[in-house]
Each structure stands twice: as C-alpha cells, then as structure tokens.
Amino acid sequence: MKDVKELKLMTLDDVTSQIKDGMTLGIGTGSTIELLVPKIAELIHQHHYEITGVCTSNKTAFLAKELDINIVEVNDVKKIDLAIDGADEVDPNLNLIKGGGGALFREKVIDEMAERFVVIADENKIVDYLGQTFVLPVEVDKFNWYQVSKKIESIKGVKVNRRVNEDVPFTTDNGNYILDCNLPEGIDPYEMHEFLIHLTGVLETGYFLDMTDQVIVGTQNGVKIMDK
C-alpha cells in the first residue's frame, strides 16, 4: 500500500515531460508542488533549460528562489505557457476546489492566464461532486468578513468558519481572510460561484470551473491521466 507522498511522487514524471525549454511556468502551491519544484530546478541546472517561473504564493517563490529558479512577478509576463498545481478536490468534469493552502486568488489569476493548466494529485482528491470531502474556501476582505459569512450561511445547509491557524485568523498573501464553507450535496458549483462572487467583500472563490486541461493522478494501480 503506497502512502500519499508516494502517490504524489508518481505524478511528477508525466508533468515534467510537458515542461519545455524556454517556457514561462505557472508554479502552484502545496505539498505536491513542493515535490515538483526540485524537479524543475533539475531541468534548469542539469539539462540547461531556460525557464521563467511565476508563483502562486510567497512560500513557493521562496522555495524556487532557494533552488536558483528565475522567478518573476505575474505583471512582468505577457503569457504563461503551462501552469502546474495541485487540487483539494477534482470532480468527473475536471472541475476543482482549490485553496486549502490559502492561495486561491493568485492560483486562479495564474491558472487562467496559462495556455495549458495541468493538475497533479493523489487518488484521494478524486470525488463524485465538489464539496464531498473538502470545504470550499472563499477569500474575503477583513473589513466585512462576518457579514459575508452570514450571507453565505443564508443558503440552506451551508456552514461557514473563518480559517484560523494556531488560534490566530489565517491571513492570505493578499492580506485577506479565508472563509471555509461546508457544502451539502446537491449545490450547483456554477450557481454557487455566481452567488458568492457578487457579494461585496468576496475577492474570489475556490471553485476552479472549466479551467483544467489535464489531471495526472497517482493511484495504487499506477498513474491515471484524465483529459478534458
């Protein structure tokens, strides 16, 4: 029985084979990406690839710079060739919930810019519907977070918690709060996203809908590729 880290490591060869010399890469956030970043550095230092990275979080940028990967700001690039990231949930239509690491706004900016967006995940992230095993993170302004949470809870069956880290409210790289929403079965992700995104104070939701080109999944039976 392979553990979760082994399942994640299984996905790396398939995704690094898609990285080409001269690319601008969108580099995501989370435990799977932390395993990928040294592989990107290997392409640069051992295979002499010229790669520019745009990171979805300060944490990833720090890790990449430590390995001498050329990292630039998103406003300094005209396009992103390939974005690679993990996910908290993947449904049968390759729609995602992301934001467990709190970087969902920056992730969405970079993944939308990319000509191709590939997700790497272990089999535990594959679900029948979004919200089945994970909360929906929503990034909100600190000013009116409580009012926003109450509006979200006006939807039947939805429970909202402000994310805390060691008893302190979690703050994103953008200086905002995250509201984690427990969703009942039967919520339409498209309708829910539309409702949330129009609430004053909501910056972005953790729904990544109609964005993913491919999901590479590490399973107990090997690597499974899910294409759009």
TrEMBL record:
Catalytic residues as annotated in Swiss-Prot or TrEMBL: 107
Binding site for substrate: 29-32, 85-88, 98-101, 125
Reactions listed under catalytic activity: aldehydo-D-ribose 5-phosphate = D-ribulose 5-phosphate
Isomerase keyword on record: yes
Keywords: Isomerase
A GO molecular function held by the record: ribose-5-phosphate isomerase activity
Family the entry assigns: Belongs to the ribose 5-phosphate isomerase family.
Task performed by this protein: Catalyzes the reversible conversion of ribose-5-phosphate to ribulose 5-phosphate.
Protein name: Ribose-5-phosphate isomerase A
Gene: rpiA
